[in-house]
Amino acid sequence: MALLHHTCSVPLARAIRSRALTISSRAAVTFPSVKKLPHADSHVLLGMSELELQQLAADLGQEKYRGKQLHHLLYKRKVKDIEDFSNLPQAFRRNLRDAGWRVGRSPVHQAVTAADGTVKLLLKLEDNRLVETVGIPVKDDKGSARLTACVSSQVGCPLRCSFCATGKGGFSRNLQRHEIIEQVLAIEELFQQRVTNVVFMGMGEPMLNLKAVLEAHQCLNKDVQIGQRMMTISTVGVPNTIKKLASHKLQSTLAVSLHAPNQKLRETIVPSAKSYPLHAIMKDCTDYFQETSRRVTFEYTLLAGVNDTVEHAIELAELLHEWGRGYHVNLIPFNPIEGSEYRRPYRKAVAAFEAALESRKITASVRQTRGLDASAACGQLRNEFQKSPLVADNSDSLQSQPDMPLLC
């Protein structure tokens, strides 16, 4: 369901040989509970607020203003190692290390740049897992520059939507708070400019890792200083979580991956739909709008010959009108991935679908296609580097990754 699964679309020369995908995308899915990682700990600086860092400084026998310096080092200078906190006293740095503290930044394992400037990064996490994040630079008609970071919330994804490369690569674990935040900092560092927008549309289902996602969201807003209205949280739908998200009354956008106008078709595209029927999702989205006054966006991936006809558009419009107003539909022409039976629809079919919605007073837009030549469909680049599909709770089983030169 990731943004870059949908936003990339012109093949260039492949720098990396693709590997066969071995997990069936049609398997039935339940919503798993993911255990806390054995190696997860609270001694990570990244993700802490300025007040928390001030208290940490005091706990280690320092003046509280040292916490403000720590905050600046983490979020402004983006320093990756305590050894490089050069403006802090050596004794303080030593105390931090001795107490087991670390910054919580991961090295870039691979970077691939597309012709349109889109960059995909693979970050190598502490347990040697690879996670994707994407930087998307855009200039509007007025010349203003915007940089969007598409961030992952899980290593892989357990939901296995039939068109998505991430699910085909398997699932390992949830990301921790700092592992989400560091993706944004890595994009800023690479582009040498501030990230203006963040979309939780990378690898994984954010609602299955809601606690860490909300913590990362708060840090990105308060500490990295990205406005809430400049962030989007995407979900294919997990029971009870939309209500939970609504209770936080965020000003960010909720994007729900719908992909079909009826339950029967949706089940063939999104296996988890069997556990969370369409009418239940629509009820929760209506309640979300009433609770937050924030318009819900529906993501709709157009699959040629599957869900892209004018009849499907009419049925979708009727569904949305049935559940009220205040919705927007984001149409996403399918981004082809190796091993998929799905095809990208013709432009004429996309235009007809959009016109059918708008003639029925449903606002719709077609997402611009970006960065296909960078394997930017979510999960593609990770799968190409990964020797075998991920297995949950077996993080030590990943085989070593090949060393390859950066392409950017």
UniProtKB/TrEMBL annotation:
<dbReference type="GO" id="GO:0046872">
    <property type="term" value="F:metal ion binding"/>
</dbReference>
<dbReference type="InterPro" id="IPR004383">
    <property type="entry name" value="rRNA_lsu_MTrfase_RlmN/Cfr"/>
</dbReference>
<keyword id="KW-1015">Disulfide bond</keyword>
<dbReference type="InterPro" id="IPR048641">
    <property type="entry name" value="RlmN_N"/>
</dbReference>
<keyword id="KW-0808">Transferase</keyword>
<keyword id="KW-0479">Metal-binding</keyword>
<dbReference type="Pfam" id="PF21016">
    <property type="entry name" value="RlmN_N"/>
</dbReference>
<feature type="domain" description="Radical SAM core">
    <location>
        <begin position="143"/>
        <end position="373"/>
    </location>
</feature>
<keyword id="KW-0411">Iron-sulfur</keyword>
<dbReference type="GO" id="GO:0070475">
    <property type="term" value="P:rRNA base methylation"/>
</dbReference>
<keyword id="KW-0489">Methyltransferase</keyword>
<keyword id="KW-0698">rRNA processing</keyword>
<keyword id="KW-0963">Cytoplasm</keyword>
<dbReference type="GO" id="GO:0005737">
    <property type="term" value="C:cytoplasm"/>
</dbReference>
<keyword id="KW-0819">tRNA processing</keyword>
<dbReference type="InterPro" id="IPR058240">
    <property type="entry name" value="rSAM_sf"/>
</dbReference>
<dbReference type="InterPro" id="IPR006638">
    <property type="entry name" value="Elp3/MiaA/NifB-like_rSAM"/>
</dbReference>
<keyword id="KW-0949">S-adenosyl-L-methionine</keyword>
<protein>
    <recommendedName>
        <fullName>Radical SAM core domain-containing protein</fullName>
    </recommendedName>
</protein>
<dbReference type="Pfam" id="PF04055">
    <property type="entry name" value="Radical_SAM"/>
</dbReference>
<dbReference type="InterPro" id="IPR027492">
    <property type="entry name" value="RNA_MTrfase_RlmN"/>
</dbReference>
<dbReference type="InterPro" id="IPR013785">
    <property type="entry name" value="Aldolase_TIM"/>
</dbReference>
<dbReference type="GO" id="GO:0008173">
    <property type="term" value="F:RNA methyltransferase activity"/>
</dbReference>
<keyword id="KW-0004">4Fe-4S</keyword>
<dbReference type="GO" id="GO:0030488">
    <property type="term" value="P:tRNA methylation"/>
</dbReference>
<dbReference type="InterPro" id="IPR040072">
    <property type="entry name" value="Methyltransferase_A"/>
</dbReference>
<keyword id="KW-0408">Iron</keyword>
<dbReference type="GO" id="GO:0051539">
    <property type="term" value="F:4 iron, 4 sulfur cluster binding"/>
</dbReference>
<dbReference type="InterPro" id="IPR007197">
    <property type="entry name" value="rSAM"/>
</dbReference>
